[in-house]
Amino acid sequence: MSEASNTATQAVSDRHPIRLRDALRQARIEAADRTGVVVDLRDAEVARLEILNDALEPLFAQIPDRVDLFDRGISQGETPRLWIDVVAHVVMGRDKRIYRFVQDTRFGRIVIAESHDVTDIVDAVTDYVARRMVEREHALVATPEPQATVSEKPRPSRFWTFALGFIAGALALFALALYASLQS
Predict the structure, then answer these.
(1) Could you tell me which residue, 29 or 85, shows the higher pLDDT?
(2) Residue 167: CA atoms inside 13 Å, Cβ hemisphere, count?
(3) In Å, how far from its chain's centre is CA 5?
(4) Which of the 8 DSSP states describes residue 66?
(5) At 16, is the pLDDT very low, low, confident or very high (cuts 50, 70, 90)?
(6) Contacts of 61 (CB under 8 A, 6+ apart)
(7) Averaged pLDDT for residues 43-54
(8) Closest to 170 measured CA to CA, from 180, 159, 178
(9) Beta-carbon count within 10 A of 136 CB
(10) Please, is 114 exposed, middle or buried when counting C-beta atoms within 10 Å of its C-beta (0-12, 13-18, 19+)?
């Protein structure tokens, strides 16, 4: 029986002569290759966003200096993004070739534009910037409506309420003392 198990073990070891150390080495090499692919994809995303950023340069050069709504820049996080302002940014789609211009709202994220073409996204960002600047102008021009001053009625003096309560309490204590003295 032991002879049969030895031949089975030898047959398995003849087919798989890899030792654990070699298997670990191979797994580490494969993990490094996958990591390299992920890094290459992220670098490709950043490069595409930089191309879009360069295409947006003439638009942002036309914005007056006194308008400080827009803070454009590329964030190098887990998902690279080209920020247009605080609530809008461009991110690459799942296939890493499509640009997705999105805006964060209180109801969630909405997609403003999505395209493979840089000029389509530049047009969408241009429209967005124009709308935001018009909203800003309306907010600055709008004056608050004058509020009618409401005069409050003068409150009655609370002194008399206090005095009446004090006298009633003193009379109640006097009546209680009188009743206790008559009982004894």
Answers:
(1) 85
(2) 6
(3) 62
(4) T
(5) low
(6) none
(7) 86
(8) 178
(9) 13
(10) middle
Write down the residue that tokens 């409506």 correspond to: 145
For 5, 84, 112, 121, 122, the CA distances from 126, given in Å and listed in that order, are: 76, 10, 12, 8, 6
C-alpha–C-alpha distance, residues 101 and 83, integer Å: 10
Which tens digit of pLDDT belongs to each residue from 49-80?
Answer: 988 998 999 998 898 888 888 888 898 888 89
Tokens 């490069």 — which residue?
47
Q: Dmax over Cα atoms in the chain, in whole Å?
A: 118
Q: Which residues contact 121 (CB under 8 A, 6 or more apart)?
A: 52, 90, 99, 101, 113, 115
List all residues 6 or more positions away from 92 whose beta carbon is below 8 Å from its beta carbon: 45, 48, 49, 80, 98, 99, 100
pLDDT tens digits, residue range 97-124? Answer: 899 999 999 999 999 999 999 999 999 9
Q: Residue 74 is inside which H or E element, if any?
A: strand 73-75
Identity of the residue numbered 11:
A
Cα–Cα–Cα angle for 30, 98, 56, rounded to 5 degrees: 120
User: What pLDDT does 15 receive?
Assistant: 54
Of the candidates 104, 58, 64, the one whose C-alpha atom is nearest the C-alpha of residue 85 is 104
Backbone φ and ψ for 23, nearest 5 degrees, come out as -65, -40
